[in-house]
Amino acid sequence: MAPEREPVFPFTAIVGQEQMKLALLLVAVDPGIGGVLIRGHKGTAKSTAVRALAAVLPPIEVVDGCPFSCHPQAPQGLCEVCQAKGPLSSVVRPPRLVDLPMGATEDRVVGSIDLEAALKEGRRHFLPGLLAQAHRGILYIDEVNLLPDHLVDVLLDAAAMGVNYVEREGISFSHRARFALVGTMNPEEGEVRPQLLDRFGLMAAVEELRDPTLRAEVVRRRLDFERDPRAFVGRWQDEEERLRHRLAAAQALLPSVTAEEGLLEHIARLCLAYRIEGMRGDITIYRAALAHAALQGRDRARKEDVEAVAPLALAHRGRPPDEAPPAGPSSPPARGPEGLKGWPSVEGERHIAPIPNPAPSITWKEGKPSLTVMRGGRRTTVVGLSGRGRYISARIPSGPVRDLALDATLRAAALRGARAGPKTPVRLSPADVREKVREGTAGALIVFVIDASGSMAARQRMALAKGMILEMLAESYRRRDQVALVYARGQGAQVILPPTGSLERASRLLTAIPVGGATPLAAGLFRARWLLERRRWLYPYTPCLLVLATDGRANKSLYGTDPYLEALQEAMAIRRKGFRAVVLDCEASAYPIGLTRGLAEALGAPSIPLDPRATPSLAQTLKLMAR
Ligand SMILES: [Zn+2]
Q1: Residue 132 alpha carbon to ligand 1 centre in Å
Q2: CA nearest 408: which of 390, 434, 427, 431?
């Protein structure tokens, strides 16, 4: 028999968090709302809520042994496995909570062709993936902001359609996949890009409890639960059972719920007032309002249902009617009260100046971007950039194959019937060859090292670096780039901004940094190398770039010898480790003495004059150089 489940903290015992709870209940009644995103800082028990929801869902009836959890009297029909069977026996079980593991491949998520069966027996057999497992249950993605974009796309597609379509090696397969998609994220770990954000039906932010009585109650219940989970769950059993019945009734009622006269127009006006683009907001609010009515036991959705669900559908899509429109096309979108707080200072910082003459430029040569800078009045190409990224799928090559996808090639051969009998080897034909399609969006780490020498100049360097960092992070929804800042000042070097992809965090940490004082440049470079090496050790394929903004005036020693020579030695060590670097030359004097050039040569790095007018384009350039 199934093992007894670990006691789960009861949903009804969660204190406060009404918005989050409502969003979860709505999507449990109608998974077609299209997924819930829960935003909250670390330790806010987001996953507790998701597990609690799974535990309170009404049980479901499924065909015994069906890998796709078919309903025995499925109105939409049965899967191939069930169709091939004779009389079906059914079982009743709780809906599943499927955790999407970090690093799951697309095959693992959507399912794949059984390679072994294909190679051994030449049989085409579909191996169900996590979407099949999650059918009629919950698919939970912790840290959804760290998931590769293509996977989030696939998941949101399936969640919205209720069907998983798989196209692999010339085989199409589809099965029902109606599940409540719940993603959680910590905004400090980076954002979800706006295009994906919009695809989540609802978003709820975990609220900070300000009432001391409520806070105390949270702690009291948590401790009670930890002391004796079973007894605690027992005390909440009646509440849980009531909610379970309410959910079951709402699920049964939903198909017959209708909207009152004029409700769609009311929703449309609301979405227009919030300047929602596209129709997704309207549709989500409509569906959520019906689910809300069903939860209240009504078969008619009214304006009050719309009022109740609208904040969950609007927070991540639009702007409140009284707010000024964004200043430019690249402005970050509004994202609820929590996100909005961080933006104003960021906006001020990002609109430093237009770019009259962007110093470096990106050109495309043979399909690859390369960086060109002006040097001595001539344009010279400094870096050839090549792409590298996660292997996401395979395709039939159009030219010579540089990146063979062995697994897909073998599958293609097997499915063609490349094996005459069980003891004969697989014979590949040129038509079987497949090449890898890679995701070009592996995040990069860009480490800035800023020196403190000359308080006026240092202040300017810091402001420019800050502008660039925020510019980079505002743009990094698509790519999961991270930025760090090391400050060489005083006795040593300080990591002011540890690697982060969060604009919110960067703008918070990069305020009011004191400038001036001794410049231990060697210590700064040493610290930066440590960050880079650590990153490479953790994620061997992450592209890394060191950006050194300096006037070259090192005046504080790390080892008790000449400070400048020590900085050169550290620079050479970074070069020997194979890290790429750029020097932003801040040697402003009319008679440069070549200190920065020396450092650039030691790093094997191009040197670009730091021009305040070129900050935005420089930020773009550095990001491209990092890949
Ligand atoms: Zn079935």
Answers
A1: 10
A2: 434
Q: Report CA torsion sign: 256, 260, 263, 265.
A: positive
Average pLDDT of the chain?
78
Of 215, 243, 184, the residue nearest 10 (C-alpha): 243
d(CA 152, CA 169) in angstroms, rounded, equals 22
Residues 6+ apart with CB under 8 A from 255: none
How far apart are the CA of 57 and the centre of ligand 1, in A?
A: 21
Q: How far is the CA of 78 from the centre of ligand 1 (A)?
A: 5
For 294, the enclosing helix (H) or strand (E) is helix 280-295
355-412 per-position pLDDT tens digit: 333 333 334 344 443 444 433 444 444 333 333 456 667 777 766 666 777 777 777 7
Tokens 């300017």 belong to which residue? 460
List the catalytic residue out of 280, 317, 529, 535. Answer: 280
Structural contact between residues 464 and 549, judged by C-beta atoms closer than 8 angstroms: yes
pLDDT digits over 182-201, tens only?
Answer: 999 888 777 777 667 877 89
Domains and CATH numbers, the chain: 1-59+94-208 (3.40.50.300), 257-323 (1.10.8.80), 361-386+443-626 (3.40.50.410), 390-439 (no CATH)
Q: Quick check: is 280 catalytic?
A: yes
Cα of 37 from ligand 1 centre, angstroms: 30
126: CA distance to ligand 1 center in Å?
A: 13
pLDDT tens digits, 229-259: 999 999 999 999 999 999 999 999 999 999 9
pLDDT digits (tens, 9 = 90+) for 337-350: 333 222 222 222 22
Q: How far is it, in rounded angstroms, from Cα 436 to Cα 392? A: 7
